[in-house]
Amino acid sequence: MEETGGTSAYGASLAGGGGFDFNKFIRQPQTIVRLLSWIFAIVVFACITTEGYINPLHSAQATCIFNQNDSACQYAVGIGVIAFLACVCFLVLDIYLPFMSNAQERKYAVVADLGFSGAWTFLWFVCFCLLSSQWGRTHDVSGIPEDAARATVAFSFFSIATWGISTYFALGRFRRGVNEVSIPTYTEPPPDHHTPYPPTYAPTSYNPTTYTPTTYTAYPSSVADVHQQPPFIPNIQPHDDVGYQTPNY
User: Fold this and answer.
1) Across the strands, what pairs with 13?
2) How far apart are CA 247 and CA 230, in angstroms?
């Protein structure tokens, strides 16, 4: 789920989330697209497993309705089943993502979503091209459920769109995560004018620049220091001064 405000990473706040809001989650575009991909995958492999094989007139072995090419049906079923399971897993991951407090774990989850969605967009495109090509070469349609065949081809095409949109959403989350999870930069505090000494800072691991202390010029010696006491000078009396005389006894 995407959060707004506060520190966030890969589309959710780093605080671990404040609880699961089902109404908000189900209304998100990414959740809607995943549910559509889940439904389309069910339609594709369900149509083939239930009506995708028929028995020819002169054979007891069931063959694929797409030009009797069993590989086309097997490919579509495999892609559909894996897409169905993946949609369930990524829906659970979308619910759990806001509760991840580690940004690195979120990155792995978003990268997995991006890689898988991109791969399945391409595989659904291959599936659509294969099924439409084999259906175009099927000339004898007697006994073939044409509606099931057309539905399989159509929902294979729809799956290309939904998985492509999921890839776009995952790419957007990855780009936002790279911009949001950045190395914190140190901001020097304002100088304190009440202290006579400049502040000194030790270099940190994320900012190895060494702080250069401020140098000051020496105090000029020619200027008299009013706070310095004068040297002691003894008060010597002159010889002609009749001062204290030793008394005669």
Assistant:
1) 8
2) 37
With beta carbons less than 8 A apart as the criterion, state whether 32 and 168 touch: no
Helix (H, G, I), strand (E, B) or coil at 160: helix
Measured distance CA(22)–CA(15) in Å, rounded: 19
**Could you write out the DSSP letters of every residue in 86-122?**
HHHHHHHHHHHGGG---HHHHHHHHHHHHHHHHHHHH
Low-confidence ranges of the chain (pLDDT < 50): 1-6, 183, 185-186
Cβ atoms of 115 and 32 within 8 Å: the answer is: no
Pair of tokens at residue 201: 């800072």
CB-CB neighbours of 240 under 10 Å: 5
Partners of 64 in the β-ladder: 53
Query: What pLDDT is recorded for position 123?
Result: 97
Q: Model pTM greater than 0.90?
A: no
Residue 61: per-residue pLDDT: 84
